[in-house]
């Protein structure tokens, strides 16, 4: 029996309140496609709740903010200022520390068919906060099945040494057992995807459409 059905565990990208999980506007998705998205085959298809995402412009997640930053919906997301958005280009760390920045970057990765890198990183962050031993085991196995196993369509790219360490640690899972793997994926996103994101039309459109601070209004 599949672990997530037995335990009822839901992935962190759907349960973390502080991590915004809504899509970017359709027009910006269009700009993103024009901004250099790759056309390789998608590894993101699959079954189950957390794999219900699609790469079409019209896809919507249930109970997710529309990311429109307006009063026409029930979301409570705050529109970041231009200054805040511009900070994302200063360093990858600043982008990843910002909830809105993480979300926009995640949508960029989705269009590049590499969203699994961000999902894996988020799942590892969620595991680090867990204290309950049973939950740690469930979440660790979930991460292994979805992102480490060679049978998974969402397998992330890790070297043999890191995989071997993870296989051994699965015998007695701990909150920080994926740290080496998480660092590898973080570095991969930093070196590979982040430069393209900063130079993409979607990022430029966010700067042009962001809100100015009150002192500039």
Kindly describe this structure.
The protein is mainly α. It has a domain of 128 residues: Orthogonal Bundle (Regulator of G-protein Signalling 4, domain 2), CATH 1.10.167.10. It has 11 helices and no strands. The chain is elongated, with a radius of gyration of 18 Å. The C terminus is likely disordered.
Sequence stretches where pLDDT stays below 50 over 5 or more residues: 13-75, 211-217
CATH class of the domain at 82-209: Mainly Alpha
Strand content: under 5%
Looking at the overall shape, the CATH architecture of the domain at 82-209 is Orthogonal Bundle
- The rough form would be described as elongated
User: What is the CATH topology classification name of the domain at 82-209?
Assistant: Regulator of G-protein Signalling 4, domain 2
On the 0-100 scale, what is the average pLDDT? 75
**SSE topology string:** HHHHHHHHHHH
Structural class: mainly alpha
Helix content: 40-55%
Pfam families: RGS (PF00615)
InterPro entries: RGS, RGS_sf, RGS_subdomain_2
Protein name: Regulator of G-protein signaling 17
Region (Disordered): 38-59
Summary of the model, kept short:
It contains 11 helices and no strands. It has 217 residues and is mainly α. The termini are far apart.
Which labels suit this protein?
single chain; mainly alpha; 11 helices; elongated; disordered C terminus; 217 residues
List the helices and strands and how they pair.
Layout: H1 3-7, H2 12-15, H3 26-34, H4 82-87, H5 92-97, H6 99-111, H7 115-128, H8 133-148, H9 160-169, H10 179-198, H11 201-209
Helix pairs in contact: 3-11, 6-7, 7-8, 7-10
């Amino acid at each position: 029996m599949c672990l997530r059905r037995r335990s009822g565990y839901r992935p962190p990208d759907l349960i973390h309140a502080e991590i915004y999980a809504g899509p970017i506007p359709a027009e910006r998705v269009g700009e993103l496609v024009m901004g250099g998205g790759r056309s390789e085959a998608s590894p993101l298809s699959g079954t189950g709740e957390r794999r219900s995402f699609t790469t079409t412009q019209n896809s919507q997640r249930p109970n997710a903010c529309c990311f429109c930053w307006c009063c026409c919906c029930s979301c409570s997301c705050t529109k970041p200022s231009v200054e805040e958005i511009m900070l994302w280009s200063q360093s990858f760390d600043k982008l990843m520390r910002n909830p809105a920045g993480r979300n926009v970057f995640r949508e960029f990765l989705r269009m590049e068919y590499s969203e699994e890198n961000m999902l894996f990183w988020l799942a590892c962050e969620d595991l680090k906060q867990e204290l309950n031993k049973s939950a740690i085991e469930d979440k660790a196995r979930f991460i292994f099945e979805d992102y480490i196993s060679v049978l998974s369509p969402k397998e992330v790219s890790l070297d043999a040494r890191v995989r071997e360490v993870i296989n051994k640690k699965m015998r007695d899972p701990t909150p920080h057992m994926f740290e080496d793997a998480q660092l590898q994926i973080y570095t991969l996103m930093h070196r590979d995807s982040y430069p393209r994101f900063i130079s993409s039309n979607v990022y430029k459109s966010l700067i042009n459409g962001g809100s100015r601070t009150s002192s500039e209004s």
